[in-house]
Amino acid sequence: MKLRRRDARPATETIVALIDVVFFLLIFFMLVGRMDATSPFDVIPPRTQAGADMPGGGITVTVATDGRLALDGKESERDPALADLFVRLKADPGLLVRVNAHRDARLGDVLPLVAEIERLGAGRIIFVVTPEAL
Amino acid sequence: MRLASKARTTRLISLVPLVDVMLILLIFFMVTSTYLDLDMVPMVDRAGPDAALPLPRPVDGQTASAPLLIRLGADGRAYVRGVALNPASLTIAIKARLAELTDAQIIVLPSAHASVQSLVSLMETASAAGATALRVVRLEEAP
Fold this sequence. Notes:
The structure holds 2 protein chains of 2 kinds. By secondary structure, chain A is an alpha/beta fold. Chain A has a domain at 59-127: 2-Layer Sandwich (Nucleotidyltransferase, domain 5), CATH 3.30.420.270. Helix content of chain A is 33%, strand content 22%. Chain A is built from 3 helices and 7 strands. Chain A has helices at 16-32, 78-91, 107-119, and strands spanning 47-48, 52-53, 59-63, 69-71, 74-76, 96-101, 124-131. Chain A has a 6-stranded mixed β-sheet, with helices on one face. In chain A, helix 3 (107-119) links the parallel strand 6 and strand 7. The radius of gyration of chain A is 25 Å and the shape is elongated. By secondary structure, chain B is an alpha/beta fold. Chain B is 31% helix and 20% strand. Chain B is built from 3 helices and 6 strands. Chain B has helices spanning 16-32, 87-100, 116-129; strands at 39-45, 68-72, 78-80, 83-85, 105-110, 133-136. Chain B is rod-shaped and about 115 Å long. The chains are: A alpha/beta, B alpha/beta. Strand 7 of chain A pairs antiparallel with strand 1 of chain B.
C-alpha cells in the first residue's frame, strides 16, 4: 500500500488580522498626532479655560523662562531670529506666528517681542496655552 | 480519451510588502508625533473682528467713555485705581464698568516683571466677565 504524503508546505497563516491592527494604529497616530518642531528647552504654556482651538501651520517662536528664544525649534539669538522671521513674513505676509512662552516667562521678555513681530508685518500672532480642566 | 484539466489555482498576491510599508509608516508617526493638548489665545489679528476697534484715547479723568485701566503688578495681582483685586473682585469691577458702558474698553498695563501666566489669567477673567474689547499696552522708553 502506498500512502500519499501530505504536502510539505506549511500552512499559510493569515496576516489579514495583523494588517487590520497595523492599519488601525496607523490611522490613529495620523489623526491624533501633531507634527511640530520640538523646543530645545522646556516650555510649559500658561493654563487657561478661555483658549480656542489651535490652527495648524505657521511658525513657532518659543520663549524660555530666562528669555532665551527659539524659532521653529532652533535656538537663536533675538536679532537673527527676528531677521529670519522678517524674511519669512515677507515671503508670506499672512503667516501665522505662534508665541509659545513659558508660563513663568517675564512679560518684559515676551511683550516687546510680540510688538517687534507685529512691527515686522505679522498680521496674526497667537499665544500658545494649555486648556485647563473645568 | 479523457484529458485531465489542470486545477485552476488563483495566484495569491503577497501582502508582506504592504505590511512592511505600513509598519514603517506606523513607526514614523509614533516617533514623530507629539501629544500635547494645546489651545491658543489671539494676541494680534489684523483680519479679525477686533481689528476695527478704535485705539483708546487719552483721557484726563473718568468720563463716560473712558476705558477701564487695569494694572498688572509684578506680583501677578490686578490693580484698579491703585487697589489690588482678586479675580472675584476684578470680575465685579469689570461687570460694573460694562454695566455703565456695554462696549467699554479694558486696558491692561502689565508690569515687565509679571509672568505670562498672570496676564493670561487676567485676560481669562476679563473675558469671563463679558469684556469684548481688551487691549494690552506697555510702556516704552522714550527714544
